[in-house]
Amino acid sequence: MNLKRLTCTVLAFLISAVAYGQRPPNYDTVVALQTRIDARDLGYAPIDVIPDGESGITSLTVAPNGYLYGATSGDHSHLFVLIPRHGYVQPLGVIPEATAVTQAVAVSASGNVYIGTSPQGHLLQYTPHDEYHQKKLQIDENLPVTDLGQAVPGESIFALTVDRKARMIYGLTSPNAHFFEYSIATGKFKDFGVVAKKIPLGEKFEHDKMMSRMLVVDKNGNVFSSGENGSFYRFDAKAQTLQELSIQAPAVPGREIWTRVDAFLLDPSGAIYGGTSDGYLFRLDPEKLTVTNLGKPLNQYRIAGLARGPNGKLYGVGGDKEEMARMFSYDPATGAYDVLGFVDVNRRPYYTWQAYVVGALASGNHGTIYIGENERVSKLYLFYPY
Fold first, then answer.
1. End-to-end CA distance of the chain
2. What is the spatial distance between Cα 59 and Cα 355, in angstroms, rounded to a whole number?
3. In CA terms, which of 17, 194, 290, 318 is 20 to 30 Å from 337?
């Protein structure tokens, strides 16, 4: 048998094996509508992709020009970009001395990408440079960055956001929950104190102080987070003060001290939507400082991310790492939820791929919802709302 025939035989066998291993058609009733979801490898398959154990997507953000930037966590962290016009994921390089970037990528008005790293806790700046025309994929190369320094000595950067108008970066650190700012104009950090002082009492697996996994900037430039006992904190940008508010994130009664906000989303109306570790969706009025509990969209813990569709609906993914991630939508106009199903893409006879754990969501400028899988081998999902 010649090499060409042998190759064809092996490929035919592999395709048949994958086809027989795929889910049956009746499973399609419990997954997201298949004409509305697709998946992308993190690079150029089968070789030039972000390696296994380094591909878990834990941060996604959309730049002013519509480019999607994402970061991974694992043995090493990588930065990647998806340019909507081209439609594929392009790895940009290994983030120096980082093993985790958790909701800590932000893009300024000028297009510079800011990355908060763990465990070193340095803020890095990456300047895009026409990556589409670079000759070599940067799978094993270090990302060219400018090190802006350590936000708080001895602390990792846990979350990051940007106020593009004010040219300010805001962040939370781990393990001691410091809230800090970085001025793009002056290049200086300021530490404004902590949002959590002690680890809540619990079982042996309780090792962390309770602080939100995300930050959000409202229309007035104030920054919101959650902290100890599920309380909300507000940083007043004008007064330069960090204040604990008398409002709390929704929680299962008795679990308040273990509650944190996992996802924030600023709505065009000015309202802030959020999802908690107990799986509740809520609406925060940043002017009146009131919280409305909108209930649980799913019978699961944790809302891993929220994004806004072009139809005005909110889209989210729920489920902790021990569960199977499910999508849902919420219509602010009617208050109605819709369970959309598992995050799954079936391209028979070639492959089927399902995300059990989701690490980040983002809303694209053209209506696409980006969903980042956070597992040992991960893909980026593209969901098209309807």
1. 51
2. 16
3. 290
What residue has token string 């989701």? 358
CA distances 257 to 162, 218, 247, 296, 351, Å, are: 28, 25, 13, 19, 43
State the amino acid at position 324 in one-letter form.
Answer: M
Q: Kindly report the number of other CB atoms within 10 A of residue 175's CB atom.
A: 15
Contact of 384 with 374, CB cutoff 8 Å: no
Q: Letter for the amino acid at 61? A: T
| pTM of the shown model | 0.91
How many residues in total does the chain contain? 386
Low-confidence ranges of the chain (pLDDT < 50): 1-20
User: How high is the pLDDT of residue 14?
Assistant: 44
Helices vs. strands in the chain: H and E counts, helices first: 1, 34
How far apart are alpha carbons 380 and 80 in whole angstroms?
A: 11
Q: What span, in angstroms and rounded, lies between the C-alpha atoms of 43 and 75?
A: 18
At 330, which amino acid appears? Y
Peptide bond into 119 cis (omega under 30): yes
Name the strand (E) or helix (H) holding 17.
helix 3-20
